[in-house]
Design a protein that fits this description.
Length: about 100
C-alpha cells in the first residue's frame, strides 16, 4: 500500500500538488468569467464591429475609390427610394 492515495481516490495526497491544482482551477475559472463578460458586453462588441466595418470601408476605398463612391451613392439612392415609397403608401392608407 502506497501513501499517495487519498480517501477520495484521486491519488493526490501532496498538499503542494493540491494547492497547484486549486490555483490552476482558479485561473481557468477566471479565464471563463472573463470570456463570458466579454461576450455579454454588447456595447463593446458593437463598437468593435463598427470599427471593423469602418476599416473595411476605408481599405476598399483606398483600393478603388470610384467603385466605393458609386456603391455608396447606390445605397443612398436605395434608402431614399424606400423612404419615398413608404411615405406614399402611408398617405394612400390615410385617404
Amino acid at each position: 500500500m502506497t501513501g499517495t492515495s487519498t480517501s477520495h481516490g484521486t491519488g493526490a495526497g501532496d498538499p503542494e500538488q493540491i494547492k497547484a491544482e486549486i490555483e490552476a482551477t482558479r485561473a481557468q475559472l477566471g479565464q471563463t468569467v472573463d470570456e463570458l463578460s466579454a461576450r455579454l458586453d454588447v456595447p463593446a462588441r458593437t463598437k468593435e464591429r463598427a470599427a471593423r466595418a469602418k476599416d473595411t470601408v476605408v481599405e476598399t476605398y483606398r483600393e478603388s475609390p470610384p467603385l466605393t463612391i458609386g456603391g455608396a451613392l447606390a445605397v443612398v439612392g436605395l434608402v431614399l427610394g424606400l423612404v419615398v415609397v413608404r411615405r406614399r403608401a402611408r398617405r394612400r392608407r390615410k385617404r
